[in-house]
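As promised in the previous annual report, we have extended the structural survey to additional targets. Below is the entry for Fatty acid hydroxylase domain-containing protein.
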Amino acid sequence: MSSVMESAWTYLITNFNDFQLACLGSFFLHESVFFLSGLPFILLERAGWLSKYKIQTKNNSPAAREKCISRLLLYHFCVNLPLMMASYPVFKLMGMRSTLPLPSWKVISTQVFFYFILEDFVFYWGHRILHTKWLYKHVHSVHHEYATPFGLTSEYAHPAEILFLGFATIVGPAITGPHLITLWLWMVLRVLETVEAHCGYHFHWSLSNFLPLYGGADFHDYHHRLLYTKSGNYSSTFVYMDWLFGTDKGYRRLKELKSDACEAEGKQM
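The corresponding structure token record, generated without further manual editing, is:
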């Protein structure tokens, strides 16, 4: 397996320079993973398939879906891509490389784990700040235009928020200077996680059913349904920050009430 990866990586670094791989390659990878993972949830919603797994019964209008996609393409090309290009010198300065040999899986997994922990901490506080009155009204309310989220709404946000919360995603790699393949893996996992958290569906096989402290769609959907002053559930991937600071109490109470209702219904039957 490693020889196959090394051969593929040799092809990339032979035919493309560092700048092309780190900026254009990262952008292409992001767009591919984001839209390929997010578009199926639009199709599910439109067709009404797997509706028993849908968290909210409300559907978004075709106009709302089209608005989301068109704005995303605008923001990705006019904000995300320039940001990747502008941050390239910083990553190079901090030691990012694309050369062989590839890092070991131990190194890759350790760094990615660190990125998740750090991103959760930074994102939580940044997200809470965005829910203060002025910032919510002028910035974060754009993201909350979709009270019934679907996968692609995960990156639908005001350009200022893209920069603000984007810092949480890149701060870990920026201070560790990883190999580019580690950065790509982190980006793919982060995109898949945030698309899943906004997908609007809670399946039997959802990670939140098996992975302790993982938030997932049910956890984040609650955040979108409520008024900004009451929402809570500010965490990114894992929910330990909300648990530590008590900002998930409303969500946990709702889960308890639903559980009690199910038990009562079972006894009546």
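Residues 126 and 142 are 16 Å apart (CA to CA). The mean pLDDT is 93. These points will be discussed at the next consortium meeting with the crystallography subgroup.
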